[in-house]
Amino acid sequence: MSEAQIAHRRLVQSLYKRSLKTAQDWYIDTNLFRRKAVELRIQFDANKNLRHPRQIAQAVQEAERQLKELRHPDPYIAPTAPGGTKFERNIPPPTAEPAAAEHH
Amino acid sequence: MFRALRPSAALYRSAVLYKNPAVVASQSVARSAMALNFARSYASAGLSRESVEKRVMDILAGFNKIDANKISLQANFNSDLGLDSLDTVEVVMAIEEEFSIEIPDKDADEIKSAANAVDYVSKRDDAH
Fold first, then answer.
1. Is A18 helix (H, G, I), strand (E, B) or coil?
2. CB distance A17–B100 less than 8 Å?
3. What is the pLDDT along chain B (128 residues), one digit of tens a residue?
4. pTM score > 0.80 for this model?
5. Which residue among B36, B89, B101 sits closest to A17, beta carbon to beta carbon?
6. Do B100 and A81 count as a contact with CB atoms less than 8 A apart?
7. Phi, psi of A7, rounded to the nearest 5 degrees
């Protein structure tokens, strides 16, 4: 796999993950979400055999546009992830002595 | 009612003592010791490696695209279990959900087998 192919694989993986996360934000019910996840997978697989660079770029652009449009206003954030409810809570207090104030 | 708001005599006394340099020095030692003692510790002291292994293997076993006979800790998702890149994303998301952590894309890219996943989850101290 060339560097460009690896970069493209990562881009598509990121798109797929963000799509699933967005679907998870909108569909609380697991059964509905599973159905949506399968639909998303079909949509991604439909573009699997695109070879022309322009077609690929268009498909990626279209996916990004849809993701932006469907972004959830209050997405789920894992508790310890930045912005989550437990993010940076109960950090152990600094035990080192503060530097002596010499400028007084 | 307002009496409770008034600083207590003990507080005044400690403020007076604080002026004395010798007391300040001994207090600073006591303060750092206190900080150590009062650092909150959680009841859960991380996950044991066996339990992480079992939970990761259970996730793989529940994945319908994986042949149950081929599952092992060292099996590569792509070459041994026959998963493509999008299936790997699904596995990583299942692991995220199981341990209630968020795995950044950079780290998710390194997870290529169950053993990698177990290593990564054991490293994360916020995994549940």
1. helix
2. no
3. 444 444 444 444 444 444 555 544 555 555 555 555 555 555 556 788 999 999 999 999 999 888 888 899 999 999 999 999 999 999 999 999 999 999 999 999 999 999 999 999 999 888 88
4. no
5. B89
6. no
7. -60, -40
